[in-house]
Design brief:
By secondary structure, this protein is an alpha/beta fold. The chain has one domain: TIM Barrel (Alpha-Beta Barrel), CATH 3.20.20. It contains 11 helices and 9 strands. The relative contact order is 0.14.
Length: 292
């Protein structure tokens, strides 16, 4: 069956047999481990569109073509060393219907209410997966975005909601993958602070949320002094790939340096792998696996 045929089948199933999604989720072959094929976990992230964040590099609408995004995701997931995917229900269910999720670690994105560029962006409501839905769909855990703006009062409710989600996942024995940032508004838009001190502060706040940290992992951006960042927590840490970089060699060198630290348990990379500057998804994925 060609890729176009698979997409046609996907749409037909959504129209005529939507219950098939639940059936496939229940019967999906589960991964045997979270440590990954390389001893570390490599996940491809694809939850950006649900926040209205479609940019990759210089293309503001790169992720707007859903068929193309799915094609790139399928290419990435088929490469050796890629352990799974992180996404919202719409994308994960598309991948499920395409037969791309067997044996994969699958993480459901939980809070997508802080739409990019809005006045309420910091008030990041949990509009995606719930802990109960993550368990029902046989996923391995949930992802939480946590932006902390000291000048925005909505941060307090976001912190409380994040703690509740972490508690809910822990009660079910599911991983909570928390992606924290210290943030501020610049010219009306939320910008994440990527200094070493800011990343350390956000990591320590995230690590302390909830009544237990037993199932919490951190997803942290790569900054110059990662040794100091990683020394700030004992929780398992995954590196974030970040934005698409024109100078991919420099970006890969920065990742490789951070991966040399044994405290790093893997990477979560989205647009940098799915929309590399040269368009070669397979090559970008293979280069990252080699570093892992």
């Amino acid at each position: 069956m060609t890729y176009d045929d698979r997409l046609a089948h996907l749409l037909n199933t959504r129209v005529s047999a939507p219950g098939r999604i639940a059936e496939l989720a229940s019967n999906r072959r589960q991964p045997t481990s979270l440590v990954g094929q390389t001893g570390r976990l490599l996940l491809v992230a694809a939850d950006h569109p649900a926040r209205g964040a479609l940019r990759a590099g210089d293309d503001a609408m790169a992720m707007a073509d859903r068929w193309e995004l799915l094609r790139r995701l399928c290419v990435a997931l088929e490469r050796p060393g890629v352990d799974g995917v992180l996404g919202t229900a719409d994308i994960l269910e598309d991948l499920l219907l395409l037969g791309a999720l067997d044996d994969k670690v699958v993480i459901g994105s939980m809070n997508r209410g802080g739409l990019a560029g809005t006045v309420f962006e910091i008030d990041d409501r949990f509009t995606g997966y719930t802990p109960a839905a993550i368990e029902r769909r046989c996923l391995q855990g949930g992802k939480l975005l946590l932006r902390i703006d000291p000048k925005d009062a909505a941060t307090a409710s976001t912190l409380a909601a994040a703690a509740a989600a972490i508690n809910g996942l822990a009660e079910l024995g599911l991983r909570a993958m928390v992606e924290p940032f210290l943030s501020s508004r610049v010219d009306g838009r939320v910008r994440n602070q990527l200094t070493t001190e800011a990343v350390i502060r956000s990591a320590t706040v995230a690590a302390g949320l909830g009544w237990t940290s037993a199932h919490t992992w951190l997803k942290l951006p790569v900054v110059d002094d990662m040794e100091s960042v990683l020394a700030a927590t004992t929780l398992p840490t995954l590196l974030l790939g970040g934005e698409v970089c024109v100078d991919q060699e420099t970006q890969f060198a920065q990742w490789s340096k951070a991966l040399a630290n044994p405290r790093v348990r893997g990477m979560v990379v989205g647009r940098s792998l799915l929309y590399p500057p040269d368009g070669d998804v397979a090559a970008a994925v293979d280069a990252t696996v080699e570093m892992m």
